[in-house]
């Protein structure tokens, strides 16, 4: 018996070795190596020195970094908007009416399309002489053309809109899966009791969707704080620093300016903030008993 | 009582009508931008930014597709994308299927430790992973190679979890019966267990296919030679190169997104099930 366990143990490690090796190098190592790196001035160009907490002192005096943190936190606004709209969409496509599957597919297309393509389409639609300005002027919402992506006051919100447009279908499907698990006799019972549509949604649908709401909020929150692709493709943080998010700033410092030490320190600060936020959400969530995996 | 009965079909009729109006309006919002891109790509020589803007095609011509295909060396970019995607999907399927198997079914020392470490990485994300990945790939002398593009995401912790969850659902008799017949652990896994987890493998393959196909940032970082770029990366390049030839850019974009949309349309059933399964676990 003891021998059997030993051979099973050998087989287990043999099965896991290739996968765990990759995970060790590309998942564990970046987390571990990022820590000592943030106490150095490591760059490809010059010699590396240990510089203590200098990077962290510099970070908190770096107004661009503070702005980028603020923009990343501001981006969280997109989370509740996406979740509410996605739940409403899921309720809309949950019915068994003819053709509803075609609509589900249509709403999902932005999710499978690359952000590069999505960004290109929207940058055209949103340009000065673009379709959006034309339509908004036609219905009288604006009087003159707005440069949506190159105006400091609108750029960040336009990026949020694009994030929302691309992500809605994904969350809709997650909520739809939740809705289809709700037994239909619950609805019938409510109807017999004379409950209206709104009451049914509020008292039956939403409470039963709670685990899904928690899960979706968590992943959407993580995505929002670490937002990168749409910002990098469309504005590179501009105009000025109005759309500079922390991921974009870290990328600029690290990959574009080879300031690996400083970028690692910034990354460490952001990781601590994200870690704290996710623990907060998990705590908040513990009562709901969600187990995402 | 009679009145309400007569009102009922009318009421459901109105409700159905309103539902369809909402569904169609939403479909226009979600699909409109793609349809507009399609229409721009089919109108050669047309300026997108006229007043009023060109929304519907006034004529249909595939000239943009022909021209951009000749200009951009698309076969090359498609080849790059396919190689990267196939390599990424195959490594992910095999490595996650192998790594998750003992975690779900074997009893051995260190199992909980491995599992806890994997869970921890999902809670503490590294914000600078891309920087360390770049240094690692450089140390391995793999920059400017497809292997360097694929290796950092050759297996994901998410996929390992998804596979482990699937294996747990398989009755232990399957493995026991294989042992009775004296088969090796590897043969049991390969011949008896893997056929039972095909749906989960399909989900991982599809999710990663879209991920690798659409990935643009890491390929740009790791590949010095733009002729090695996959489509999504090449597209950023195309956009910068001739910013006024809208028809060409639209056609190029359509070429790059169509394959993945077609794959999605044919496999959406598995895909949707997989997405849903990921929450429940």
Automatic annotation (TrEMBL), chain A:
It is a multi-pass membrane protein. Belongs to the binding-protein-dependent transport system permease family. The keyword Nucleus does not apply. GO terms for biological process: transmembrane transport. Keywords: Cell membrane, Membrane, Transmembrane, Transmembrane helix, Transport. Pfam families: BPD_transp_1. The chain crosses the membrane at residues 12-32, 73-93, 105-126, 208-228, 260-282. Signal peptide: none annotated. Residues 69-281 form the ABC transmembrane type-1 domain. This is Chitobiose ABC transport system, permease protein 1. One of its GO terms (cellular component) is plasma membrane. It is found in: Cell membrane. InterPro entries: ABC_transporter_permease, MalF_N, MetI-like, MetI-like_sf. The keyword Transmembrane helix applies. It comes from the Bacteria. Gene3D superfamilies: MalF N-terminal region-like, MetI-like.
Automatic annotation (TrEMBL), chain B:
Pfam families: BPD_transp_1. Belongs to the binding-protein-dependent transport system permease family. One of its GO terms (biological process) is transmembrane transport. It comes from the Bacteria. PROSITE patterns: ABC_TM1. InterPro entries: MetI-like, MetI-like_sf. The chain crosses the membrane at residues 12-38, 77-101, 113-134, 146-167, 188-207, 246-266. Residues 78-267 form the ABC transmembrane type-1 domain. Its main location: membrane. It is a multi-pass membrane protein. Keywords: Cell membrane, Membrane, Transmembrane, Transmembrane helix, Transport. It is found in: Cell membrane. GO terms for cellular component: plasma membrane. This is Chitobiose ABC transport system II, permease protein 2.
